[in-house]
Amino acid sequence: MKLAFDAKRITHNATGLGNYSRFIVNSLINSYPENSYHLYSPDKGKKHLRALIPEQENVIFHYLENEILGSLGKAWWRSCGIIGDLKKEKPALFHGLSNELPFGLSKAGIPSVVTIHDLIFIRYPQFYKTIDRNIYNFKFRKACLLADKIVAVSEMTKQDIIRIYKVPEEKIDVVYQGCDVSFLQQAESNKLSEVKNKYNLPEHFILNVGSIEQRKNLLLIVKALKQSGKDIRLIAIGRRTPYTETVEQYIRENNMQEQVTILNNVSFDDLPAFYQLASLFIYPSFFEGFGIPILEALNSGTPVIAATGSCLEEAGGPDSLYINPEDVNGLNEKINWILTTPSQAEHMRTAGKEYAKRFLDQAIAQDIMNVYQKII
Predict the structure, then answer these.
(1) pTM, whole model, 2 decimals?
(2) Where is the Glycosyl transferase family domain (predicted)?
(3) By the 8 A CB rule, do 86 and 3 touch?
(4) pLDDT for 248-286, tens place per residue?
(5) Domain 2-178+360-375 has CATH 3.40.50.2000
């Protein structure tokens, strides 16, 4: 069977939608090697990201032939120009892995699936520019209308699609996300030492991973640490945004420069070691479509504190701890409990690893293939 995918995120995005897209495609390649996988991207993107997809005969990248058209030309190709290329290949279906589909698939006789990750821009419009919200809303709504099947990455996202876009429930299947296999493997001791020395990590620290933006709510952790008075470091890893300066200003005003370290451009190869070295992972985001960093932490055997209000309980399971994303006191109490109660931390490590087994790539690949079979 010939399967086609929108691969722009695969070749261009190192985190988030890129990780999801690579995970789905790699899981399918490993579980269903009899199929051929056609990956459509407007250009070759970044070599190190392409290299995360195996080079083999049944994996074929397709690019816009005339790259001199520039960014507008590439956007046009992803939106509708790609249909001409798809007609030549005649795939069994096209899967839009990141909330959008090209126009004209149905007319070309190509069944389609779209993955919708979240509708955060509607729930929390204050976190987005007006023009971005309008573009997202147009693309997501249109994709939901055009797709033969919708994959929602959580039950929360499914209910949002039904409520906001009035999509029939039977059109939507929930298929959870997984994380890269590297987080399931124990890092070698020399790798742990290398990362510890490279980033000057302390013996014990709290970890947070995710873009340093307002929605991700890093400041809540910093405030909780200030309140606790505990001498433990916080290491935050993520892309900088204007919100980063807000966090750093609070750090300076409260003389916490030695306690909080913000890192960006951390190598993906180093991330599993960070998780495995951490004493605790905290993810207090106001809203997520799923929360892959939580799954990365669970698979690494790291206790997790996350926020209520979205789908993070689905990702973290019943043995992780949860707080209101505005509750500094509650977070402070749970940090103290885990760090001072070894039996609780050990229980969370063991139970978390067990819970994370339901998100293994073989199971998710089968769920995705079940969605495909419904429309082929």
Answers:
(1) 0.87
(2) 196-354
(3) no
(4) 999 999 999 999 999 998 998 999 999 999 999 999 999
(5) yes
